[in-house]
Write a structure and sequence with these properties.
mainly beta; about 55% strand
């Protein structure tokens, strides 16, 4: 599977590379999609709506959104997911948020950055994360 933004930037296209066809057009963001992540097993995808301040959890097989994640910031700059699709991370302003993707519930908030987080990464098992922020 491959994910990309639609031409207007507000939807996610899911492509089956082997069959050479689009499987789904995933709509729901009101802002331009800034980040996309796909789980290693192609079952779960995340899309960050940039200026709409949301992250959508997508069931790739069914082409539906079971959860919309909302933090406190107006925009989500950073996005990551564990290999198994169980844990998601967002860079939401100066906070890193850890989400349970099966429930859409926030699990932890990680503080320490004084400037906005622009990149996050998570280990395959979801235990460790790294983040970057621009320090002024």
């Amino acid at each position: 599977m491959v994910l990309n933004r639609s031409t207007d930037g507000h939807a996610v296209q899911v492509w089956d590379v082997i069959e050479g066809r689009r499987r789904h057009l995933l709509e729901g963001h009101s802002g331009y999609i800034s980040n996309l992540v796909l789980s290693d097993d192609d079952r779960v995808a995340l899309s960050a709506g940039g200026l709409d301040g949301t992250v959508r959890v997508w069931d790739v097989e069914r082409g539906r959104c079971p959860h919309v994640l909302r933090g406190d910031a107006d925009r989500v700059e950073a996005l990551a997911m564990s290999a198994d699709g169980r844990i998601g991370l967002t860079g939401d302003g100066t906070v890193i948020r850890v989400w349970g993707l099966a429930t859409g519930e926030g699990q932890r908030e990680l503080f320490g950055h004084t400037d906005p987080v622009f990149a996050v990464a998570v280990s395959a098992d979801g235990r460790w994360c790294a983040a970057c922020a621009v320090t002024r």
